[in-house]
Amino acid sequence: MADHVKRRQISETVEGSLDRHGPTVVNHLMETGEKAFRERNYDLANAYTTVALSLDPTNLDVLMRRVLILEKLALYKEAYDEARHMINLAPTDARGYLRAGRVLLAQEDKTHEAYSLFHSALAKVPTTDSRYPLLEIYRKRSSPQSRTFVSHLPYEVTRFIFRMLPLASLVQCTRVSKAWRQFTIHCPDLWRTIDLRDYPSQKRLPRNALAQCLGRAVDPHATKSNGVRELWVGNKMTMYDVVDLLVAKDCKHLSVLYMSDSDLTNRTWTRMMIKDVCVNIAHLFLSHTDISIVDVMICGGSLPNLTQLVLDGCSFGYAFSKNVKRFDLSGAEFITPSQYTTPTLPATPFPKLQILGLSSVHDMSIFALLWLLYRCPTLTMLRTMHTSLTLTRIMVAVARYCPALTYLEYSPVRLHPPVAFEPHQLPLMANMRTLRFHTEQDDAVLHTILDQCHGTLQQLSATVNDANLLHLASLNPRHLETLEIPLSPGVTERGLCALIKAAPALTLLDVSYNADAVTDTVMHALSTLRGLKIVRLFNCVKVSGAALLACVQASPTLRTLGLYQCPLDRPALLALINALSPDGIIECPHDIVLRKRTDPDAIVDAMQLDMDMEVVDEEPQQQPTVAVEPAVPLVPDLQDILRKDDLWSVYI
């Protein structure tokens, strides 16, 4: 038999088979395409649907699925053409109108056309159609009268409004309306910062929800750095799932990572380092996790851009050799963790590290601290709260290995016997600007520290006595701007006046709860300062209203005056308000803030103050330009900073 005859017979057999089994083949292709669609493999689903449509071009079910797939592929023109073909095949079927309208709604500039399409469809589709109510719903959604502020405001203004919401509220906004959803899920800037700590405490964020948030932070049209920038997780998710998603989404532009109070282990940490997820991280929070500080330092090569590292509540996990000199603590380069299997350790694992938090590290010995500081030569800020080390050793260590240090915060876990400095043991610290000591220190130790730092010292927060203030005043601290000495029982009027006269650059003074030391004489000394901005006098009962008024009138730059538990009557408070600058505030009991209103017609006839204040039974006098307003934050961004982390507000 000739070949052409055999081919003709085979072709006739195949065509007959398709004629007999065509519906079965089409159904199989549709099921396979739906499976690929559920797996989000839209290209494969489109291929199966196209073959099924070639076998049955008038099948509305196949056409409806093809329009949906083309819409997912963002092929809106082809999808609309297929939907119009459905309308031509069945003018009284609602499915064609619904698909065509959804394609138009997916395009921002086609809302009016979608409304016209749904409006005309209601006149053609019979009311007995089961999808007729859907047409009415979509007509209302596309109506010009139902447009929200998202459609009216500029893009930058709308984005600013949504960026002020926490993550839980932002996720809820995606379910309000189609307009809100289209804007929120297609605005990557809204998802660049993911903070799960505001998520309800009784719930854990599902893995797929975090995956969606990470995916929405990616801008497909961006040419520079893309994806999520800040991820604040905490204990709201399992760290294994978080690291798995960071690796899967290739989040290499992450700059802030908060994993404190979580189940982070050395194994999960090692996996994250191997995958190079943290290449661009600048701020890393690992407080109160099971990870070893030594393992973090070993992985420093994977964190070349790290500038802030918080390891509060962690542990070293290793003992250290003791090959250092006792006088100046030299020889830190020879200290090694015992029983550590890695033969070589990086000399400077973090070449850009500037901020380090080591609070509540209870197994930190002086040798462990030296091993750490030796590898952080660029350190500028160190926080060692609740430590078992003495202040003397810490000061000698940072002076030798961190000469660029500008900020030091210290408090011991328990009171130690004073350990005085040996002669010439503490070198000059020419860059130190901020000292914060939360417990009372020995006079000799504190005087030695002030001798080496007074030339550049700008901020001092400590529990001091009169001898400390007189010693600091004798050093002539010309650059001192902030002095916070609340609850210092050893301070007297003499020491305060001497220091105020020796520090002309003082802008902030907090002498709260020093009732015996703060008197009218101190207020008279404060009136000589021309740059004073903030004064807090909580529970300073010996200050009179006349002295306060004279100080306020002599300080034109004063913005904040704290008077909690001060026995002042209403006329004195009104006089202080009038004497303050227009943007000045007075902090009163129970967070009441008295402000001066710029409206010249505003008049106060009554004031509700706390019972701690003495109220004089006099007829209320008419006082112009005064009003009582609720408390407002002193700094606009303060609430946002404090919402993230206490350490963040301290360090940055």
UniProtKB/TrEMBL annotation:
Pfam families linked to this entry: F-box-like
Gene3D superfamilies named in the record: 1.20.1280.50, Ribonuclease Inhibitor, Tetratricopeptide repeat domain
F-box domain boundaries: 147-194
Alphabetized SUPFAM superfamilies for the sequence: F-box domain, RNI-like, TPR-like
Entry-linked InterPro entries: F-box-like_dom_sf (IPR036047), F-box_dom (IPR001810), F-box_LRR-repeat (IPR050648), LRR_dom_sf (IPR032675), TPR-like_helical_dom_sf (IPR011990)
Chain spans, region Disordered: 1-21
A cellular component term, taken from the record's GO annotations: cytoplasm
Listed name of the protein: F-box domain-containing protein
Species: Absidia glauca (Pin mould)
